[in-house]
Amino acid sequence: SMQDNDWMGKLAEAQALSENAQGAELRFDGKVALVTGAGAGLGRAYALMFARSGAKVVVNDLGSAERDGKKVRAADLVVDEIKRAGGQAVANYDSVEDGDRLVATAIESFGRIDIVVNNAGILRDKAFANATPADWDLVYRVHLRGTYKVSKAAWPHFVRQKSGAIINTNSAVGMFGNFGQTNYSAAKAGIQGFTNTLAIEGAKYGIRANAIAPNAGTAMTATIMPAEVVEMLKPEYVAPLVGYLAHESTEHSGKLFQVGSCWVSEVRRQRSGGVAFPLTAPITPEAIAKRWADVVNFDDGRAHYVADTRQSSAELLANAMGGG
Ligand code: NAD
């Protein structure tokens, strides 16, 4: 349709622009990057990007793929692709649930680890009424526990060398929810909380942790997206943000970025101005009902962004001190 054509034109423009505006090359020579779930989809695009920029890459994936009609390890395909292009990579076939083995592969093969991209993922979509504990546990284990296990294994290396970058994978669904994805949205929201605290604890060691909410046409989304949309949402359009966030020149930490089809943004939390009820009289449900329109008002010029936990409690403490 007309609309689709406009879309593609804009995409071509954006690509041309991004190529023209490129500054100094962000290289990863001498660095080791571990990408989980890198046998396909987004992870594959990250692995190829890191290798192209000079990094040694651990390509983790427990999945299989097909080559010349034969079943092969998905990770091997990507490692071969990197090597054919002159890059350095090694495969790891363990589940992210065994995070220490993934990090051991990096240390044994390349002697260090600098970058962890927690990307591996699965879906077990079902309406909550039909969702089973097994689905819940599996999605939790791969996404949140896997992210934890790999990060936990890399952490002592990062602390010792006083540097390290972790990029975790959230989703729009982790922010807003989606029908049939209670398990997935809970795991993704958990990953964001985990990322926020890692960033705080890592700051004094020069360790940064960020999360991205990507959109890409992959095996995970191909079944629910039309083919033209899959084509517009190439994983290659997401990978450069991961490269930027992983690079030692980047200062951002504890942030969430939404990215897809060459569009990159930061997402942050907004809070209404709030209502300060006097502490002198007991606050009642009725009193709140009366002021409800003000509690949820984002248009009175008092709505604001909240950067951290301390800032988030400033107003309520001020009210307790008699400011309200
Ligand atoms: P994908 O299915 O193409 O790739 C995921 C890879 O992870 C697969 O190759 C799979 O074999 C591997 N994997 C699964 N379980 C694993 C485990 N236990 N250990 C190691 N590897 C494992 O999916 P994708 O679209 O590339 O998704 C990558 C990440 O991005 C996921 O975390 C996903 O939730 C997230 N995400 C994707 C989209 C999107 O639009 N594609 C949107 C939001 C979030």
From TrEMBL:
<comment type="similarity">
    <text>Belongs to the short-chain dehydrogenases/reductases (SDR) family.</text>
</comment>
<protein>
    <recommendedName>
        <fullName>Ketoreductase domain-containing protein</fullName>
    </recommendedName>
</protein>
